[in-house]
């Protein structure tokens, strides 16, 4: 009886968060495709003069019960500068991940982003000590486009740094830090992430 009530409550909550998320995206002039589902309310911020596009059948998970191992925080999708672009393809699942762009972050179709994944195209702060604390010279902040191709699976708590391309069909192990590009059709893991296996019979 109690279990049935909890399931019913979660079903209603899912419908409500989906409705409110779609409304929020429309108010921010964010493009999104058909059948977007939100389990819990994501954090989505579009900087003026930037763009965020989300494809069909996206699932944005921002609630503890939306993933078996729970989330540290809600899904975050945020552009941080004028002209920044975040592109998310069709059939993408995101579980409490953070995606931030000052230039361009592109995520392909059928990508899975595990719990608490972080993806960015920026260092956020300058490297020079005299500029670092208060971003005194924003032009010194490193940035480079980050691209995740189709059918990639990024495991829980992985961090994908600026300028990285992860090739199609590849898998990134949980807890990895991806500091350089990963080729298609492989499994990569570690700190920094390195190829540990090539996937056979995958095109």
Automatic annotation (TrEMBL):
Keyword Acyltransferase: yes
GO molecular function annotation: chloramphenicol O-acetyltransferase activity
PROSITE patterns documented for this protein: HEXAPEP_TRANSFERASES (PS00101)
Keywords: Acyltransferase, Repeat, Transferase
Keyword Repeat set for record: yes
EC number assigned by the record: 2.3.1.28
Name listed for the protein in its UniProt record: Chloramphenicol O-acetyltransferase
Organism: Paenibacillus nuruki
Lineage: Bacteria, Bacillati, Bacillota, Bacilli, Bacillales
